[in-house]
Amino acid sequence: MGVSSLLDKLFPSGSGGGSEGPPWIVVGLGNPGAEYKNTRHNVGWWSIDELVKRTNAELNRKRKEVRYAEVELNGSPAILAYPRTFMNKSGLALSYLTNRFKTNPEQILVVTDDINLKPGSVRIRKKGGPGGHNGLKSIITALGTNEFPRVRIGVGNPESSDEQVSHVLGTFDPDTRDLVRSAANRAADAVTMIVNGEFDNAMNIYNAKPNQTKKKNDGGTPKPN
């Protein structure tokens, strides 16, 4: 019996490793392979990396389409997942995980790059279209709905639309990389809030306009961007 089959037997579908009710599924979008690790398209993975680090998670659950770990984020059960396919096949990972854990779309949280946001910004949406993102497009097709939340990390627009592919598969200059790395860590903070039932609070913090953010910070709220 393989390791995955044994784990599936020990933790039956929908059990979430023994937790009550289905866990949140938190998936970071990116491409597998060392050559893509530091690209703009992989910043969703950076955020999952941070959550794995914080929880000391062991990514010992592996399927051909996904590798994942069962963790708790401040006491709430969650699945941290990396698709093992290329970006345009990301939906295969969600197809497996939703069947395995019986999680509904509203408890699937996708962390992704967004070229329409300035580098270093973080935004949260409860649902929406793919916005030209092939990973989101694949997930929407796999789930049959676009009504799942996502945390978006800004990577900036290319100078020309013809350069979009090379832009997202390119790397950051050192200063911008540090800025976006910090944003990925803040996205991990947002994920933890959302998984613990603070969706609206997270949106109020991370979706605030600069003048609103300043006002909130005067009152002690952490600055999101």
Automatic annotation (TrEMBL):
Coiled coil: none annotated. Transmembrane segments: none annotated. Pfam families: Pept_tRNA_hydro. Its main location: cytoplasm. The record marks D113 as: Stabilizes the basic form of H active site to accept a proton. One of its GO terms (molecular function) is peptidyl-tRNA hydrolase activity. SUPFAM superfamilies: Peptidyl-tRNA hydrolase-like. Its EC number is 3.1.1.29. The active site is at H41 (proton acceptor). Monomer. Belongs to the PTH family. This is Peptidyl-tRNA hydrolase. The lineage of its organism: Bacteria, Bacillati, Chloroflexota, Dehalococcoidia, SAR202 cluster. The gene is pth.
